Amino acid sequence: MSSRLVNWFHFASPATFYPLAGRLVPVFAVLAVILIGIGLYLSFFVAPTDYKQGDGYRIIFVHVPAAWMSMFIYLVMAFWAALGLIFNTRLSMMMAQALAPTGALFTFLALWTGAFWGKPMWGTWWVWDARLTSELILLFLYIGYIALQGAIDDTRRADRAGAILLLVGVVNIPIIYFSVKWWNTLHQGASVSMRGDVRMATTMLWTMLIMALGFWAYAIAVALKRVRCIILERERDAAWVAKLPEAQA
């Protein structure tokens, strides 16, 4: 057990995590391409037509996994931010920063596809109900974090300020998830719940889960690629960076 802990702490250093991230990026990138390709094929050609919503419902295979990822990535960012504040680890703050653009992308994708789904189903592109409003607030939290990081020149001050914003914003995640239960909204309830309740065909469920795994693999690949760039930028004066082939090119 102690040797495993040593291995994990070994990769907490930017110098040792950088090459590990480089090896993992192509693995998760290939996984993302394969899983998303399979998921899109199942979405359009295999999943049955919904008896109420017709073929228009198929957008949920992008919308729902994107909404899941928007919340999950924010929680992961808050986790890294908490580690960074508690243990003063540089890599934790870098990971939070690397995840932010991808989280904002998935949040925007969830809102955008939700609007396309809502128009034929609800008769409107947007309603100010609890689910949509809280998801929009999540997008503002991502954008606010990115803007805050860019507005403060001192890296440590920027990391601390961003971490506090992330931790305060965590309160919005349960509001998003439970909003359809706490308030009367147009948004339908969850088709898949944390208790394991499923209200959809098995093919639809597997298609949605495969798309979610594909989005997850994409998020990991992009975040690892981005954190390598952040490490090079922040550690550019370190001796180990000068020895890298990309630094000498």
Structure description:
This protein is an all-alpha fold. It has one domain (27-47, 56-235). 77% of the residues lie in helices and 0% in strands. The chain has helices spanning 2-10, 14-46, 60-87, 90-122, 130-151, 155-169, 172-182, 202-234, 239-242, 245-248. Helix 3 (60-87) crosses helix 6. The longest helix has 33 residues, at 14-46. The protein is globular and about 65 Å long.
What is the terminal-to-terminal distance? Answer: 41 Å
The backbone outline, from C-alpha atoms, is globular
Proportion of strand residues: under 5%
SSE string, helix = H, strand = E? Answer: HHHHHHHHHH
The biggest sheet, with number of strands, parallel, antiparallel or mixed sense and barrel status, is: none
Domain module tally: 1
Helix count equals 10
The percentage helix is over 70%
- What are the low-pLDDT stretches, counting only 5+ consecutive residues below 50? none
Beta strand count: 0
The SS-based structural class is mainly alpha
Using only C-alpha atoms, the radius of gyration works out to: 20 Å
| Rounded mean pLDDT score | 86
Oligomeric state of shown chains: single chain
